[in-house]
Amino acid sequence: MSIAVLGQVYNEVRRLSIAGSSVASGDFRLQKLIAPLEKSGEKAPVFKKVAEAVTRLVESTEKTSAEALLDLSTLVNAILYTQGQTGLEGELEPVTLVGTGILPKRTPSSILKTLNIALTQAGSGRLEVIQESLRREPFPDPRLLESAIDALDGTYHEVSDLVEEKILPQYGMAIIPLLREKYDLKGKAADARRLSVLHRVDPEGTKPLIHEALEDGSKEVKIEAISKLREPTDLPFLIEQSKAKAAAVRDAAFTALAEIESPEAAEVIVQGLTGKASLNHVRGGLTSRHPHVLETIISEIRKSSQKITTASPADRKLKPHVNECERLCGLIDALAERTDPQTEALLIELFSQRDQITKAESKDTVYRSEPKILQRMNECTDQTRELLIQEHASLDETGLQLAVMAAMQVDNPKRFYDLFHGYIENGKSASTKKRDARNKADLIATTIRNHVEYGHRYWHTDRTSENQIATRRDAIDPRWLDLALKHDEMVLLIPLARPGHKKSHDRLAAEMKKMLKSAKRPDYQIGDVLSAILRSDHPQKVDLVIETIHAMVKWGHAYYFYMISDLIPRLSKSEAPRFEALLAELPDAMADRLIQSIAELKNKSEAS
């Protein structure tokens, strides 16, 4: 019996079982196996039955494909079962029961396979794969648990951190035995993460481990243990650790004190702020929201700015003055996300003194307080933002960008256009095409784009929904789109292109064609343009996506298929047959990347 061809059928059946029976119809790989099966069937009738089952599956419809795939799978497995041996020699051992109550979810096997690889293997793009999967909510699933726990030991800390913070806590207390099994009190970063997860799922039950780690843990585990202390009874220990020589231990202690927010904890932070040590010594405590700490920070900022502005020209070249400039910046950073009246009053006061402070700051330091002041003002109420907006013409590029961001948050689209469109006009004007004007025009365009959608979002962590992006786009005055077309400003055109806007459609199509003509490699902006084409409901959007896929094959650049696979499910369900037909023309590796997206397109509801 020719087992080889049956093995191929088995592999294809397994692949389709993972991808979903909805993509089995017309499968080109199965079609190639029909002829050799029929030839073998001339000698062994069972091969003829397999060929008939394969034919039924290839010719099936969406409604009959599941049954046809099950029939073929049953037949092939039954035949292969008779050719192999089952069982295993040796003593039977009891299996430890863990994860009680965690049941498999209805997650496609293709996603499970991809996630297991991304969690356990090395290579670029793993973080994006895991982040992308979270929108489908595959966790908690027992089939992913072992891989997720192994990911805590990974060398790529972004993946390990994501697993620690967002994935493993979803499994709850059921995973405690598995975490405890590998936990090492004297271990490294992975053991600190295990302790963190244990505390997240069972804070009360982890207290003995925390205290044990404080006494005898390695540096990494001890720091993690300190960061978990939040009880008033922990204060004496935290106060002692706030004086530690090791910066990481000291930071963890001050961070915990900031979280506790008791008068005693606040007093320790205040003593650190007003002491002789540098601000870095107490930086973990600067996030405290306690009124006593805030009053001290505001007071220290006034003292510091006065010391800087009253320093003599000779003193401004000395190290203590440079250190004071750095300290002022650190103190202003501590006001991040504060909108209380005292903070806003201080920022307005500093804003009025910014020229004086800037002039007095040392030329030997990279620390500049003005951008910090403007950044904090942009986080305040509209009343304070308004001051920033009104002064836009007097600000440098960093300040101008913050003024633009403030104006977009104040929500007056007509006024926003009237105030800032001149920068684009001026930067593109032939008579004033100077570098400064050009830079400011680019800055305005980039800031608007990032407000609507973050550029190259398909390879970043930004998972803003298409509806949210469309809402932001529609809130922008439509004259910006006309301005983008007038000056051929693609950075503006891409986020602002709208459905039914023929001129923007024509320009996007022309830009796409130009990028696809490249003989070597894709332009890094290709995903942004293609995404804009779909979001603006371009009449040629399907053709352009398919052209892009063909170009990817020509370039041999499979990495960008990650971006394409994200875009396909956004098309109309009726377009699925065109992409199914395309699969036969693609190399296997690229076809595999698109199969799941096409299945998602086919299975979406008509209304979506």
Shape: flat
Helix content: 55-70%
Q: Mind describing the biggest β-sheet?
A: none
Which structural class best describes the helix and strand composition?
A: mainly alpha
Radius of gyration: 31 Å
Q: In total, how many beta strands?
A: 0
Global mean pLDDT: 87
Helix count, DSSP H or I runs of 4 or more residues: 33
- Residue stretches low in confidence (pLDDT < 50, at least 5 long) are none
Name the features.
single chain; about 600 residues; mainly alpha; about 65% helix
Task: Tell me what you see in this structure.
By secondary structure, this protein is an all-alpha fold. The chain is built from 33 helices and no strands. Helix 2 packs antiparallel against helix 3 and helix 14 crosses helix 15. The two termini are about 50 Å apart. The model has no long low-confidence stretch (mean pLDDT about 85).
Short description:
This protein has 33 helices and no strands. By secondary structure, it is an all-alpha fold. Helix 24 packs parallel to helix 27, helix 26 packs antiparallel against helix 27 (490-496) and helix 28 (502-516) runs antiparallel to helix 29.
